[in-house]
């Protein structure tokens, strides 16, 4: 279990995505991490991740990740440190920043990506 810091709007979007794909928030967070991790090798995305980490996020959210997925946070943080020379001190901070970077994308694109990851479930984004 990891606790991440996100904004209220990000939390609402996350809940809508989970509801639209008939899953729980932890599953959507895991899927989002799988979607965003491959992009973190780019220097631009590494700095955007740091920007997400530096931006205040007032809401705490506790999520569960499978151990193999949580273990990807350590090399991800090492890659960010290698590119930016800024060390991310905790797995929760790394996950929170990666999640916020993922959630910053177009909500329709996020829903579509989730539907691809869950072939057979139609894409849906619950209206505001």
Describe it.
The protein is 60% helix and 8% strand. The longest helix is centred in the N-terminal third of the chain and has 13 residues, at 8-20. It is built from 7 helices and 2 strands, in the order E-H-H-H-E-H-H-H-H. By secondary structure, it is mainly alpha-helical. The N and C termini lie far apart (29 Å). It has helices at residues 8-20, 25-36, 43-54, 67-70, 73-84, 91-103, 107-117, and strands at 2-6, 59-63. A two-stranded antiparallel sheet has the order 1-2.
Shape: globular
Rg estimate, integer Å? 14 Å
Q: How much β-strand is present in the residues?
A: 5-15%
Order the strands across the largest sheet as they lie in space. Answer: 1-2
Number of helices: 7
* Poorly predicted ranges: none
Question: Total strand count, please?
Answer: 2
Structure summary:
By secondary structure, this protein is mostly helical. The protein has helices at residues 8-20, 25-36, 43-54, 67-70, 73-84, 91-103, 107-117, and strands at residues 2-6, 59-63.
Write a concise keyword list for the protein shown above:
128 residues; mainly alpha; globular
Write the layout of secondary structure elements.
Blueprint: E1 2-6, H1 8-20, H2 25-36, H3 43-54, E2 59-63, H4 67-70, H5 73-84, H6 91-103, H7 107-117
Antiparallel strand pairs: 1-2
């Amino acid at each position: 279990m990891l606790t991440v810091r996100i904004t209220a709007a990000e939390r609402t979007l996350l809940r809508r995505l989970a509801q639209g794909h008939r899953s729980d928030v932890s599953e959507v967070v895991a899927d989002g991490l799988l979607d965003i991790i491959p992009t973190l090798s780019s220097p631009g995305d590494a700095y955007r991740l740091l920007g997400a980490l530096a931006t205040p996020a007032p809401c705490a959210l506790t999520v569960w990740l499978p151990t193999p997925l949580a273990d990807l946070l350590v090399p991800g943080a090492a890659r960010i440190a290698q590119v930016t020379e800024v060390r991310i001190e905790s797995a929760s901070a790394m996950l929170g920043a990666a999640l916020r970077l993922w959630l910053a994308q177009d909500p329709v694109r996020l829903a579509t990506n989730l539907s691809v990851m869950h072939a057979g479930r139609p894409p849906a984004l619950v209206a505001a």
